[in-house]
Amino acid sequence: MKVSKASMRRRLFISLIIASLIFLAMITRLGYVQIWKGSELSERAEDSWRRNIPFTAKRGEIQDRNGTPLAYDISSPTVMAVPVQVKDASRTAKLLAQKIDMSEKKLYDMLVKRTFIVKIQPGGRKITTEKAQEIRDLNLPGIYVAEDHKRYYPYGGFAAHILGFTGIDSQGLTGVELEYDEYLRGISGNVSFLADVQGRQMPGSTDQYTSPREGLTLQLTIDKPIQTILERELDQAVLNYQPKNVIGIAMDPNTGEILAMASRPTYDPGNYKAYSSEIFNRNLPIWMTYEPGSTFKIITLAAALEENKVDLENDHYFDKGYIEVGGARLRCWKKGGHGDQTFLEVVENSCNPGFVVMGQRLGKEKLFDYITRFGFGQKTGIDLAGEENGILFKPAQVGPVELATTAFGQGVSVTPIQQVAAVSAAINGGKLYTPHVAKSWLNPLTGEVVEDIEPELVRQVISEETSKEVRLALESVVAKGTGRNAFIDGYRVGGKTGTAQKIINGRYSANEHIVSFVGFAPADDPQVVIYIAVDDPQGLQFGGLIAAPIVRNIMEDTLRYLEIEPRKDQLDKKYRPELGERAYVEVPDLVGMTVNEIIQDLGSSLNLARAGSGNLVISQAPKAGTRVQQGSTIRVFLTEQPAKKE
Question: Annotated active-site positions, please?
C-alpha cells in the first residue's frame, strides 16, 4: 500500500515536532542542572572526593561554684596516617619509631593497611606538643599530626568521684564527665583535602580547615574550700581509725546543692587505670546502702511531731533498759536504762525504747508513709550515675517487731545521699529537694551564663512549725545529749549520732559497726548540713565518739569560711568533767592591770603566763572578749609600773 506524499509530510512534521520537544526538554534539563543545581552537584562531587583529618574539640571546662577550674583540656596531639599517600612505608616506619614508643614492625603494618586513614596508636595518641612538632619537622608524606586534647585534673584526686574521668577518645566515662558528656564534648573540626578514588591527594588542590567548637563550661555547686576541708578530715579519719571506708557529704539544705562530697578510698582521675574498678566505679555517698541506725530517728521524730503523737516537754517515758514487742526484747544502748525522761530527753539520749513508743503511736501506715515521703526506698535523682534505691520492708512484712525496729533505724537500708536529703527536709522548713551537683552552664568564650540549674522541690513533707521543733530538739542533742562532741562554742549546732551494727553473712555483727553523725548549723537558720559515716573504725565504735568530732571540725571551718559570725545566744552545753569536758569562759580585759590584780580576778578559771619585766600589763593574748576553755593559758606582756607623782 502506497503512502501518499501528504501523509509522508505529515509524519515528518510530527516527528520533527517530537524531536524538537525532546531537544527542548534536554536543553531545559541541562540548563536546570547547570544553572540551578550546578553548585549543589559540584559540592556533592567535591564531598565525595574530599577526605578529612579530624581535629577533636576541647571538652568544656569544669569549675567549682566560684569559677576555680577543676578539670580542663590541654593540647595533646595525635599522629595519623593516610596509607596511600605514604611513599616509603619502611622508611616512614623507621623514622616514626625513633619519635614514638612503637616498634617499626607495628608501624609498618599500620602504614600499609588498605584503609583511608589510620590512627597511629597507642604510641601516637595524646603526645606532647614538643613531640608533635618533631614529627611535623620530618615532613613525611601521608603522616599528619591532628589537633587532640588530654583531660587534666589540676588537683589530682580532689572531688574524684564527682568529676569522674574520660577515655582515650575524650568521652566521659564516670561522674559529671559522663552525666553531662553531650554538653561538655563540643563539636569536632577537621582539615580536609581532595583525593582520587585511591585516596591520593589531587594535584593543585588546597586544604580546608573547619575549626572545632569547644564544649560548654560546667559550673558545679561544689565549693572548693569546703570540699578541701571535708577531704582533709576524711584523710585524717583514715589515719586515726583505719576504717574500711569513710563517707562525707555537705549540702545546702535550702536548695539541694551539694557543697562537698567525697569518700575514702579514692583515686586520681588522671590515672584511673592504676586503681581497682571497685574504687572508681563506686561513688559510695550515692551507691552504698546500709542500716542507718539512730540518725534515722530524726524521721520518726518529725513524723510523730507532725501527727501530734508526742509532746516533747510534757510527755514522759520510763526507760528500764528495754522494751518487749511481739515476744522480742529490744534493748536501749544504756544498760539499766535512762529511767524517767521527757520525750525531749528521749531524743537527747537516743533512747531506743522511747522511739519504739513513738513508732507505735504513729502506726505502720503513718510511719511508712512519712518514710516514703522523706524519700527513702527510692532514688533521690541526684545528677550522677550509680545511685541506689535503698531497701524498706514491704507493708505485708511489717509486724509489731518490724515497726519497732524501723522506728529507731534498724531493718531498713538507706544511702548517705538519702539521709542528707531527708534530714535537710526535716530541718529546712519541711521541703524535700532533689540533690544536685551542676549549678550552671557558661559560654566558654564569653563566660556568660547560658543556663542556670534551678533547685527542684520534690514535695512539702512536714510543716514549718514541726521543722522548727525538730531543729530545737536536735540542737538539744548536741548541747546536752549524745551529740556533745559536735558542740561548737559560739554557734548553734544541731545533729544526731548513729551507730549501726553491720550485717555479716546474714547476721548482725557484734564487732563491726557503721558509725555516723549528721549535723547542721546555724540551728535556727540552717545553711549547711554535714554527714559523716565511718565503716568499721578500729577501737570504740560509737557515732558520738568518732563521727561527731569529725563533723564538728568540718562545720567549724565551714562556718568561718562562709563568714557566719559567732553568737552568744546558744543552748548551754551540759559538760561532763569526768570525760574531760571543760566549759568555755570569756577572756577579760587585762590591759592596764597589775599582776596581783589579775591573779585575784582570774581565780582558777584561767592560767597566766608572763612575758617581759615589770608588773603592769600592756598587751595580752588572746584578746579580751575571746572565748576559751576553762584552764586555758592567757599570756600577758609586762612593763614597769610608772612611779606615782607626789
Answer: 294
